[in-house]
Specification:
The complex is a heterodimer of chains A (194) and B (330). With 194 residues, chain A is α+β, with helices and mostly antiparallel strands. Chain A has helices at residues 8-35, 37-43, 46-58, 102-106, 141-145, 171-193; strands at 85-87, 112-118, 124-132, 151-153, 168-169. The termini of chain B are far apart. The chains are: A alpha+beta (194), B mainly alpha (330). Chains A and B meet through helix 1 and helix 3 of A and helix 1, helix 7, helix 11 and helix 12 of B.
């Protein structure tokens, strides 16, 4: 049972500690009286330790990452999210676009290409409305410029083109996208206005 | 001769594995501290990430910059790697596990860690690039300034142990956590740790790399396996400094419960290398923790800290520790 027995060396520890702590405190007091309180505070690294405490706490906090392809459905999006472009119709099925070509003019990437003609009822309609998805930078300026809310940005951001040529999105494709996402677009516009 | 080779492999192979996993651990821990999750796609929750990184490094092309100094360009990664591996020879892992139990062990380590700066300097010089040159100049000035404070901080350790032999330094600290050098040498330990972080070019003293100003500093022109060599050297240095710090200030492979009744006997079966690994992993973690927390020092602030704060503090503590030694308090 030699482990219970307190050795002379262990008794010596107490003496040492008094000396060691005395020296440490003397050193701190010397710095305090010679250089002042601010110097001592910076030498004790208090600010750095409080910084370490913040990151140390964050290490154990729950993480905010959403794992994109696995949890893609639950990604939070703003009503102003600028995803894939779409063309909209009125409720009666008539296309909204009046071929004013404001979007074509404002497009910084020159991605929009419009040709138009006069319809039989005297209105101006597009015959061609192409968007080059490779050129498009999803800036949303076209949607902003549109006076009739015809061209809009959807929330859709996962799209890709596997063949050359597919990147030119025709009027029919854009209208189809608009039909597909009409509920979402209307909801986003409502939210944005509020 | 053969045995020495085998012993060296016994140190190097675990070291290289540790380096590989340290790179992943760093990304993981810094990610966690920034409320992200870090790499978690390769293998089981990111466990195979180091292997993927290694494959990427090996298969990438080695780009040789025009008008670079060929010999020095290929030599400098090795000049950085070899000293950082050589320094491991003198580290005592337990009572009998020392590859080279030489009397000037501490001096040897000091020499080897300083040699690394040649690799940094020559890499910057040889790659014929302004950013690399600036990075290596900074690194050189930084290492020279911080080596002085580091040397003075180690004088205290030498005074207390009466020896430069690392095994004797460990034995001089025998007797539990309050007998270790960190307590009587507390200001010097802080100074030493700050200098050690600066020596290994790690955040917040990574002005030699300084992503935002110098792209990648001295290794900006290196690619593929040559870049990986720099990477391995940096992380091997980090692990080495952590082990070295635990040896000098935290009792090396000694158990922290020595001298306490009952508890010391409960833990007497634990081999020394486990204690050493545990203590060093804390310092490795501290490296990552500091990188996740502190912004980079400006270059003039770095010099100011080195010359006007760290050197005076370590110089001022030498009389204190000498007096304590003289009166037998430590």
């Amino acid at each position: 049972m030699d482990s219970i027995y307190i050795s002379d060396e262990a008794l010596g520890v107490g003496m040492n500690l008094v000396g060691v702590f005395g020296a440490l405190i003397t050193f701190a007091l010397l710095i305090y009286f010679i250089f002042g309180r601010d110097q001592l505070k910076s030498l004790l690294l208090l600010d750095l330790l409080s910084g370490l405490r913040v990151t140390g706490k964050k290490l154990f906090e729950p993480k905010t990452t959403l794992h994109f392809p696995d949890e893609g459905e639950s990604l939070p999006t703003s009503p102003r999210f600028k995803g894939m472009l779409a063309l909209r119709r009125y409720e009666n099925g008539q296309e909204r676009c009046i071929a004013c070509k404001l979007c074509e003019a404002v497009c910084p990437a020159l991605a929009i290409n419009i040709e138009s003609h006069e319809h039989t009822d005297g209105t101006r309609r597009t015959t061609r409305f192409d968007i080059d998805a490779f050129k498009c930078i999803n800036c949303g300026l076209c949607a902003e410029a549109c006076p009739v809310d015809s061209i809009v940005c959807t929330d859709e951001m996962n799209y890709s083109f596997l063949r050359r040529g597919d990147n030119i999105m025709t009027k029919e494709q854009l209208l189809a996208i608009g039909d597909l996402y009409e509920d979402q677009i209307a909801r986003n516009m409502e939210k944005d206005r509020a | 001769m053969l045995m020495i080779f085998i012993y060296a492999l016994c140190i190097l192979i675990p070291l290289v594995v540790a380096v590989a996993y340290l790179t992943t651990l760093e990304r993981k821990i810094i990610g966690y501290m920034q409320l992200r999750v870090g790499p978690n796609r390769v293998g089981f929750g990111g466990m195979l990430q180091p292997i993927a990184d290694a494959i990427k490094f090996v298969t990438k092309e080695l780009v040789y910059p025009e008008h670079a100094d060929g010999l020095l360009y290929y030599l400098s990664p090795l000049l950085l790697l070899v000293p950082s591996l050589t320094a491991w020879a003198v580290i005592p892992f337990s009572e009998s596990w020392v590859l080279a139990d030489i009397d000037a062990g501490l001096l040897f380590v000091f020499a080897m860690t300083s040699l690394g700066s040649y690799g940094v300097l020559l890499a910057g010089w040889a790659s014929n690039s302004k950013y690399a040159m600036l990075g290596s100049m900074r690194s050189c000035a930084q290492i020279i300034s911080y080596e002085i404070a580091m040397g003075f901080a180690l004088v205290g350790v030498i005074l207390l142990a009466d020896s430069l032999n690392l095994q004797k330094i460990v034995y001089a600290q025998a007797g539990g956590i309050l007998h270790w050098n960190w307590l009587p040498l507390f200001p010097m330990f802080i100074v030493y740790w700050i200098c050690a972080v600066a020596e290994t070019n790690r955040a917040p003293f990574d002005v030699a790399e300084g992503e935002s100003e110098l792209v990648a500093g001295f290794h900006v022109e290196y690619s593929g396996m040559l870049f990986a060599t720099f990477f391995i050297a940096e992380y091997a240095n980090m692990i080495f400094i952590s082990v070295f710090t635990s040896t000098l200030f935290f009792g090396g492979w000694l158990s922290p419960f020595e001298g306490i009744p009952y508890i010391s006997t409960w833990f007497s079966w634990v081999p020394g290398i486990i204690w050493l690994a545990g203590k060093s992993s804390f310092f490795v973690f501290l490296y990552l923790w500091m990188r996740a927390t502190f912004p980079r020092y400006r270059y003039d602030q770095l010099m100011m800290l080195g010359w006007k704060t760290l050197i005076p503090i370590s110089l001022a503590w030498i009389p204190f520790i000498s007096a304590m030694k003289l009166w037998g308090w430590v």
